[in-house]
Amino acid sequence: MKDLLPIRNKSLTVWIGLALVGVALILLPLALSQIGTAWVRITNLAILFVLLALGLNIVVGFAGLLDLGYIAFYAVGAYVYALLASPHFNLHLPFWVILPIAAAVACFFGVILGAPTLKLRGDYLAIVTLGFGEIIRIFLNNLSQPINLTNGPQGITLIDPFRIGGFNFATNETFFGLSFTGPVKYYYMLILILLGVIAVNLRLQNSRIGRAWEAIREDEIAARAMGINTTRIKLLAFAMGASFGGISGGIFSATQGFVSPESFVLVESIMVLSMVVLGGMGNIWGVILGAVLLSFVPEVLRYTVEPVQRALFGRMLIEPEVIRMLLFGLALVLMMLYRPAGILPSAVRKRELETPQVKTT
Amino acid sequence: MSAAPLLSSRGITKRFGGVQALSDIDFTINRGEIYGLIGPNGAGKTSLFNVLTGIYDADTGEFTFDGLPLLGLKPHEVAARGIARTFQNIRLFANLSALENVMIGRHVRTRAGVFGAIVRDAKTRAEERSIEKRAYELLAYVGISERANDLAKHLPYGDQRRLEIARALATEPKLLALDEPAAGMNATETAGLRKLLEDIRRDGTTILLIEHDMKLVMSVCDRVLVLDYGRKIAEGSAADVQKDVNVIAAYLGGEVTRDLKGAA
Prior knowledge:
The structure holds two protein chains of two kinds. In chain A, about 70% of the residues lie in helices and about 5% in strands. By secondary structure, chain A is mainly α. In chain A, a hairpin with a 2-residue loop joins strand 5 and strand 6 (about 180). Chain B is an alpha/beta fold. In chain B, about 40% of the residues lie in helices and about 25% in strands. Chain B has helices at about 45-50, 75-80, 100-105, 115-120, 120-140, 155-170, 185-200, 215-220, 240-245, 245-250, 255-264, and strands at about 5-15, 20-30, 35-40, 60-65, 70, 85, 175-180, 205-210, 225-230, 230-235. A six-stranded mixed β-sheet of chain B has the order 6-7-8-3-9-10, sandwiched between helices. In chain B, helix 3 (about 100-105) runs parallel beside helix 6 (about 155-170), helix 5 (about 120-140) packs across helix 6 and helix 10 runs antiparallel to helix 11 (about 255-265). Chain B is globular. The interface of A and B includes residues 219, 221, 222, 224 and 229 of A.
């Protein structure tokens, strides 16, 4: 955990590695465009899920508070953007105004959820957060009456894309003979936001606040006795996590151009939580890996299962959806057996689960 | 520093359902003292600690600490006022390193918030450096610096006790409240602990000590408070308390009391 922090102390090879990753990230969408723009869209959605997973990681991984309703904050952010940049209320604010508002509103809801649940732990907290997630979704579904706030199950359409002056993120453009489609432009923006969010997360983890979160996760009573205002620090975890969810939601709204309550069902919360747990709770890189895997594998299956089966058997035997769930189940079982702390466990989680070693000093 | 006592307790009472855990406890702790708190198991020693440090609320009574009332404060506010404690059953942050444990103890004396954490301005960086420096100093002070990067749960038992003391000292307490620090220690470790307690007192921190190791209590404590069934049965110098018939009765049993009283 400590060694992630001082990048300036890293050796030359690490710098070269980082440079290669950077180049790969820049070229990725151009390469994907060759296969099909759909893949760029999938990548963008994967990045959104990485953002979400990183936000949830603050609550679950750092502070140890199990949140099963996290998608609610994504929903809040998405609707804030949708309402402020669509013909629904005929408001068309620019995105750099809306995203901070989305973060603030989601943060407010994070505190609303956090405040009454501060005394709950583990399973009890999980149940309340699960309920909260459903309440938000049902509100969005029903707030079309008496005044039409959310347009109910039909959702909100014709949401503005990101625009900076005359530069529209949704249209095609050609620079230096290369064609940049809308998704490709969003990709670069998302990568920039992602890098910012990763930096914020790393810094939070290695700070006075991050240590206080870890202290609460380890032993709340001892944390209080050491002068940590657990009420405040837990609320802060909820608020920070929710803000990241809100920002991701806003971007989701803009990239899709359409939101409806259906996008924010419980399964989505579970999915984001699975990303955090699969990758390695508390480890930022693990969480990113988990989110990328769980976003991409189903899509890869969707595009490969059918042609592969047709080539092998001449017809479709098993639906991609069935294979997806089979693999998902298998992955869960294998994970529990061989890597219960996640693919890239945090140093802390690894220590928790490994058998204590006898020191021979 | 005034001559007024650091901590005074008046009429502290705490009841759990039908159990009278503490009844009407009065005592004062002077600055620079090592003040012992002894009594048989279940006498109310740890309850008194929990009421003092804000984990429980007292039913009646009041504490005055450093000239100001203490009751009604939450545990973190008590820590901010200058009372730090250790726990009878060690409560370290088990999966964090020894150094991180002590760094967390600095929380209450430092200020950096989310903004500082994200922006990492000069002030925050300086604060982080000072937190780390102080944590290393404290690990050295309690004699476990070579363990800085080991996980708290991997430390030997005696070192865990020392780490708890270092973490408590990191909060810059005026009063250090130790709940059975010598429990489970062997004779050598206890001798080392005794030296540590004397060092801490010499360096200006008053100590409130719950302890079952009578040899340790009698050798380091200036004064001792004895509880039994939630009542104060004796208070005074270690030597006086040792001779008190009520104390002997409490430790050895009621029958002996009558015999001793008859004999006296």
